[in-house]
Design brief:
- By secondary structure, this protein is mostly beta strands.
- The chain has a single domain, classed as Elongation Factor Tu (Ef-tu), domain 3 (Beta Barrel), CATH 2.40.30.
- It contains 2 helices and 9 strands.
- The strands form 2 sheets. A 7-stranded antiparallel sheet has the order 2-1-7-8-9-6-3. A two-stranded antiparallel ribbon has the order 4-5.
- A hairpin with a 5-residue loop joins strand 8 and strand 9.
- It is elongated.
Length: about 130
């Protein structure tokens, strides 16, 4: 049995198969700078905040297979918001997958890669 680190919709990051090395969570607070005559500028809120998550890591084909992110690409191709849940049960919210990057290296004679680096960008959807 494997331990789930996090899930994007039905795609599970598992310690025994396709784990990630890093998770970055960013919340942008939107402010505009307002110039004041003979005073320091003021700041005014421009509405709701935005939140983004980036998940990155390295996988080996011996452990993860040669196409470990294919199911994630299928989810992203739907261009719909999906839940993001941490393995310890916290529902972070609904997110859109805005970008998936993968870089393969160390190839065998038949062209199969040994190592793959990946990065997944998510943007929170507010309802």
């Amino acid at each position: 049995m494997s331990t789930v680190m996090a899930m994007i919709d039905t795609f599970a990051f598992e310690l025994s198969r396709n784990d990630f090395n890093r998770l970055d969570r960013t919340r942008n607070y939107n402010f505009a700078e307002i110039q004041k005559a003979q005073d320091h500028p003021g700041l005014q809120s421009l509405g709701k905040d935005t939140e983004e998550i980036t998940i990155s890591g390295s996988l080996t084909s011996l452990r993860s297979g040669i196409a470990p992110l294919d199911d994630l690409f299928t989810i992203a191709d739907r261009k719909e918001s999906v839940p993001f849940v941490m393995g310890y049960g916290v529902v972070v919210g609904d997110f859109l997958i805005t970008k998936i990057s993968e870089g393969k290296e160390i190839f065998l004679d038949d062209g199969v890669h040994i190592k793959m680096d990946f990065s997944i960008d998510l943007k929170k959807v507010y309802s």
